[in-house]
Design brief:
It is built from 16 helices and 34 strands. With 759 residues, it is of the alpha+beta class. The longest helix is centred in the last third of the chain and has 27 residues. The chain is globular. The chain starts with a strand and ends with a helix.
């Protein structure tokens, strides 16, 4: 049986790649012109490799044809075969079959490069699939894609989740589309490959290469058969852009955070405008979005700069334009999009009156919480009481810095695919200039006025030396609406809000603490307005039936504080006492702290990665021993309990310090309604854990002896302000600093453990 190597649309070139050593002797014939019949080369004899470049142990094996007849290309350990296609990099599609007999080294977790096959461009850069071994890669069981310079194979990796077993022939398709970029298929099924051509510096390919096992000891031999290539035109590359919307340059040109803000009180309260006093507009714009009305409408601003329209009104167009299905460029589709039916794909989506549930339809790249039944299309008829949340999607070629720590890239890890969001509210009548926007989930349209803020409740604690001289960064952090109703940050707009629970708590805490300093009222007012608006929005979400934000590792923190803060300053006791008002709502700080006997001798504990369910009082194991654990000596900890300790030290405690101090300065402990939180933070800041860290290492092998995982850490490398404020003010406050050593009722904790599932 003849095995063909069929060249497609472009030329077959005679040149080799840099570093190639042994070219086949017979020259390649002239390439056919475009549109001519494709030339065919067999893999049954030496002439099959005309124009190829071979190194080391590479030969045709006449006995190994895929279907039991004819030959296949054998690549032994250290061997390399380069099939030269053309003299210019361009797009194309490669199909080949690779025989994997399942051989693996004795130590499959040691770094090692096994057999690989893929595409090579003129500068030597490679896109390949194969078997790579490392302690973080499962090379003994599956395949990895690599984009590199042909030498550093562990540069840019993507675990494909494709099993090597059973041993035998595997069909691979590497499709480098001129428009859509890179796509991989294994045995006719697309696999998740997050490698971006632009980011990897790949502009196409001019050769196919197959590399043999590069390791020593129990080395694997690879066979390749039925190789076909269809060559295309130039690749339309999209450069990868990395940007920080929160750096100094971005802050300097952001007009939204430099708008004039008046400190409104009852003495200078603005009048309610007449309808005819409002401008008549065909459209309004904010944060890169424009809403166009069916006919000119009366519009106004809330105190934070958000727009409202006096309704009813109909929005007939939104820019950037919402895109659906095949209107989304192929290159912009990520792996989540591709898992959905074409009609379920959406970009720059919007939701009129988003539900207070963990369901959204802004972008089909949202993990877990995307609900295609909620997709909406224009026009949008708005009635008084309606809120329209519009979004701009993240482009695949964009990497954005998020608040305080993360970098977000569409389709990579847990990243949100939503770039920014804005809220347009429909009201029945004009509002005064000091009106806050109603919560976007509040269909009752509660309107709060800044003139009624109880600013006297804000302490004027002496600011320490490291206090930010300008509050612009934190004003920017809180300027745009925090519209996240889901979890894990999967749908949270990157340019609006923190992307991880730890940072959510840090931003919420530092903002509140800044508002408790002796900075001038005019300096604090923009941040105060923004922060109260966040509290109104989050409180509105809970009021509308949202279950809250559960303790889950570092997630779930930071939501409760803005609600309590806003409730106190607005005189809304339902919000101020959110725990008592909605006792089944989850908040991470509370679910992860409790009174109980700790193995260290403390009387307050971290209640675990997943804490205690506020709705049921049951410890959450989640099948991983992630519930309460600190009552146990480390020698009894299981894997999941070691995980809880790691999260206690790196993703929760240090981020709560500013929250606890701000609440204590405001004398808001009673409103907060969960005393263990305060005593736990005191424990974190005052307990000497030197001996305990040694005990943990002896008992579990886990080493927590790092500055960033020891008690007293408050992320001071970025916020020395927090540590300094704690040292200056916490010892002067009425509450004792050793409450974490005092005995309290631990009934709640013990009951949570008793009810917790065994697994």
């Amino acid at each position: 049986m003849r095995k063909a190597l069929a060249w497609g649309l472009a030329a077959v070139a005679t040149m080799g790649l840099a570093g190639s050593a042994c070219a086949a002797e017979t020259p390649v014939a002239a390439a056919p012109s475009p549109g001519a019949e494709p030339r065919t080369f067999t893999l049954d004899d030496r002439n099959s490799l005309n124009g190829s470049t071979l190194e080391g142990d590479v030969a045709l094996d006449p006995t190994k044809g895929r279907q039991g007849k004819g030959g296949a290309l054998r690549i032994g350990p250290g061997g390399k075969a380069v099939l030269n296609l053309r003299d210019q990099d361009a797009s194309g599609k490669v199909v080949l079959w690779a025989f994997d007999d399942g051989t693996k080294p004795e130590n499959a977790k040691a770094p090692r490069v096994g057999p690989r096959w893929g595409l090579v461009q003129g500068d030597g850069k490679v896109l390949a699939v194969g078997v790579l071994y490392a302690d973080y890669l499962g090379g003994w069981e599956g395949y990895t894609a690599s984009a590199c310079d042909g030498r550093n194979w562990f540069d840019q990796l993507c675990w494909l989740g494709v099993n090597r077993a059973p041993a035998g022939w595997h069909k691979w398709v590497i499709d480098f589309d001129a428009e859509a970029g890179i796509q991989l298929l294994h045995n006719e099924r697309e696999v998740n490959c997050t490698l971006d051509a632009g980011k990897a510096g790949l502009n196409g390919f001019r050769a196919i290469a197959i590399w043999g096992d590069a390791g020593e000891g129990n080395a694997q031999t690879l066979w390749v058969d039925d190789v076909s290539v269809t060559l295309g035109g130039p690749v339309k590359t999209v450069p990868v852009i990395e940007a920080d919307p929160y750096d100094e340059k971005a802050l300097a040109v952001d007009a939204s955070i430099h708008r004039p803000v008046v400190v409104y009180t009852r003495d200078n309260a603005p009048a309610r405008p007449r309808l005819e006093d409002l401008p008549l507009k065909e459209s309004v714009s904010q944060y890169g979005m424009t809403w166009t009305f069916a006919k000119p409408a009366r519009v106004g601003h809330f105190i934070n700069g958000d727009w409202y329209v006096v309704g009813p009104a109909t929005v007939t167009a939104i820019e950037p334009k919402p895109l659906y299905g095949n209107a989304i460029p192929k290159r912009q589709l990520d792996h989540m999009d591709k898992e959905r039916r074409v009609e379920q794909r959406v970009r720059n989506g919007f939701m009129l009156n988003p539900p207070a549930r963990m369901k959204v339809a802004y972008d089909s790249g949202v993990r877990n919480w995307f609900d295609p039944s909620l997709i909406q299309k224009l026009p949008v008829a708005m009635e008084p009481g309606d809120s329209l949340v519009s979004t701009i999607s993240m482009a695949k070629s964009l990497i954005l810095h998020a608040q305080l720590r993360n970098k977000i890239e569409r389709g990579v890890d847990d990243s949100s695919p939503v770039r920014t969001a804005a809220v347009l509210t429909c009201l029945a009548a004009p509002q005064p200039a000091d009106a806050f926007r109603p919560a976007f989930c509040d269909r009752h349209s509660r309107i709060y006025l800044a003139r009624n803020l109880k600013r006297e409740l804000l302490p004027t604690a002496a600011a320490t030396q490291s206090v930010p001289k300008k509050l612009d960064l934190f004003i920017r952090f809180t300027q745009r609406p925090w519209v996240g109703t889901c979890f894990f940050g999967f749908e949270e707009p990157v340019e609006n809000m923190p992307q991880y629970g730890m940072e959510y708590g840090r931003v919420a805490g530092v903002c509140a603490l800044l508002l408790c300093t002796d900075s001038g009222p005019e300096q604090k007012e923009p941040l105060l307005v923004n922060y109260v608006q966040i509290g109104i929005d989050l409180g509105g979400v809970v009021r509308a039936g949202h279950p809250g934000w559960t303790g889950w590792g570092g997630h779930g923190s930071g939501r409760k504080l803005p609600i309590v803060f806003a409730g106190l300053l607005l005189g809304d006791m339902e919000l101020a006492n959110i725990n008592r008002s909605f006792p089944k709502a989850s908040f991470g700080e509370d679910e992860q702290t409790a009174y109980g006997d700790c193995w260290t001798g403390a009387k307050v504990v971290f209640a675990g990665h997943s804490g205690i369910d506020a709705a049921t009082g049951v410890g959450r194991s989640r099948g991983s021993q992630w519930g309460p654990y600190e009552h146990l000596h480390p020698s009894k900890w299981k894997a999941g309990q070691n995980t809880s300790e790691a999260y206690r030290r790196t993703c929760t405690s240090g981020g709560w310090v500013a929250e606890a101090l701000a609440l204590r300065l405001m004398k808001a402990e009673k409103a907060w309604g969960h005393d263990p939180f305060f005593d736990y933070v005191d424990r974190w800041m005052f307990e000497d854990d030197a001996a305990f860290v040694k005990t943990i290492k002896e008992a579990t092998g886990k080493d927590h002896d790092h500055e960033w995982s020891r008690t007293g850490w408050a992320w001071q490398e970025k916020e020395a302000f927090v540590k300094e404020m704690w040292a200056k003010h916490r010892p002067t406050l009425p509450a004792p600093t050793d409450g974490w050593k005092q005995k309290h009722s631990d009934t709640y904790y013990r009951t949570a453990i008793e009810k917790m599932p065994a697994k």
